[in-house]
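Aim 2 progress update. The chain analyzed this quarter is reproduced below.
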Amino acid sequence: MRRLFVDNSEWRLRLAATALMVSVLGFVSRDTPIDDALIYARYIQNALRGLGLVFNAGEHINALSSPLYSYLVLGLATILHGHVLGASAAISAVFMFLACVVAESLVPFAGFVIAGTGYFYSLVGMETSLFLFLLLLTVALAEAELYAWLPTAGILLVLTRFEGAALLLPLAFVLARKRRWPPAITFLPALLIAAFYLGLNHHWYGSFFPASANAKIGQGRSELWGRWPTSFFHTAYQLKPEFLPTVYVVVLVAILAVPGFLKMKRATWSRIALPFLGILLAFYILFNIPGYKWYYAPFICFAMVYACAAIPKNGRLRWLTVPIILLAAATSTWRFIKISRPAPDTGYVAVSHWFIANTPPGTRVEAGEIGTLGFDCEQCYLLDSLGLTLPKNADHVAHKDIRSWLAEDNPEYIVVHRSPWQFEDVAKQSPNYAPLAVDFGPVVYVLKRKS
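Predicted structure tokens:
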């Protein structure tokens, strides 16, 4: 058994630089949560108002795909007197730093490079940094032979994202080959955590598991995001804004990742991580899951870890490689700060303000993107035409039915895109709805029911 963390002057220097980068980039990106992050925020906002962990008051539908993250943000937001976005930004930054610390324990400079990658900060408000931390921690615990901690780390990983279960199979295989298992008593905390979570779900929502899991699988079945098996890659263009300005980092990682893997292929952590990435990718492809931006994070993270593994431990080549790595990370950080801007005005904030000023509480509003609308317009009863928070619509999507939602939901208002999504055509063509004579910008407008 080896120590999980080293402790020397070079290690402390890298961690200090990593902490500085995470602090700066986390601060720069703190006010730009993506739309899906604000779905979590509305759930937590309602809980703080005493309505329960729900999206719409009185409607117990579980769309929390990351329960552990949700509970952590709820706890911190309670301490911060209701500052939900501040809590989510703080948790994203803290676990980003911790993920980098664990990456450094596996491979020197890995955490430093990850910390300087702007992509990870574009996901503020999501559970991504917590997920990466628990992924890296689990494989690091196995590498250090700290087996007693593995059951608890494993259940926390699964409760952060259910895809984390894909890590447990290669982990069990490696432990079986070594004939080393965690002591039986160490499974008790994991079982208690799982039982508490499932019991709470069933008590509050009437179901053991979130409805959002079926919604994503239904989206894959529909092939509306791309024909099988291309859907996961069809949306990779979302990575362009973060990686194109620093494409040299992508090139550097691509060049070094293969020799880094060959160097580390016998390491315990690598024997767990690589099969996990293969299983995860196979799952996304097999079920044709749309490639949401944050789904790429584990692949990017471990690619950077492998790339840093290629750096020689000593000799002239090390002193040639290390400055290149440092320069790439430093310039990547600087470019992200320089080009970072507030989130583009999609019009949803203006729409929310109009609803607050012109409609009574409980007004039924439907949209395909519900995060910003839901968080900013607390008084609206918000319907999701894609079914993330409305399971019947998720079932329609799975069966390629993009029209039934309108007649069934009969909302008073519908928010649609000027470049229409295919789900919105039925509303735009309906004689029962007419556009509001209000300009909300170039992205969206609002249809109002005539009667």
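The mean pLDDT is 91. The CA atoms of residues 190 and 349 lie 41 Å apart. These observations will guide the mutagenesis experiments scheduled for the next reporting period.
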